Amino acid sequence: xxxxADYQLDETDRRILAVLDExxxxxxxxxxxxxxxxxxxxxxxxxxxxxxxxxxxxxTRIPPSALGCGLAATVSVELDQxxxxxxxxxxxxxxxVLECFAPAGGTDLLCRVVARNPDDLYRVxxxxxxxxxxxxxxxxxxxxxxxxxRIRPLLLARQEAPRGRRAPxxxxxxGASGTRAVRGTR
Length: 186
What we know:
The protein is α+β, with helices and mostly antiparallel strands. It is 37% helix and 22% strand. It is built from 7 helices and 6 strands, in the order ααααβαββαβαββ. It has a 4-stranded antiparallel sheet. The protein has a two-stranded antiparallel sheet with strand order 5-6. The longest helix has 14 residues, at 39-52.
């Protein structure tokens, strides 16, 4: 993860990854043609992404509902800070814990979990609560997904923004009727 966080994507990387997002199994030659880059450039960049762990596993594209786990939730965790590593190690052993984050604020850990049904979610939540160092949990069920995991819009937005150009600053402006409006300025 450290190497992943240190690597900064350049314009060439964004071009390759945006096209690769359309079809992750696209052959290198076709990827080179679509990006108008040399085959060797594409091949070396793909190797670098693999070495640095920049590409997610193919299994992340499988919806949990296809595995019988159509109920999704977050479990907020309060823990004994001295047992953080033990708690994380135990959380990794629970298959229904898809992701776990350490957010800022009052929550120590935030886990995204899946389950088959409400009773199964109760079981998963209890497994989490019984992990070493976990003092208290709170579970919130997702009713539906309104924006799924995606990266393509971010790749394209970064691709289109010229280097060194800042996002527009919003400042109040006065409309013809004297009312306040907000407009973007550069």
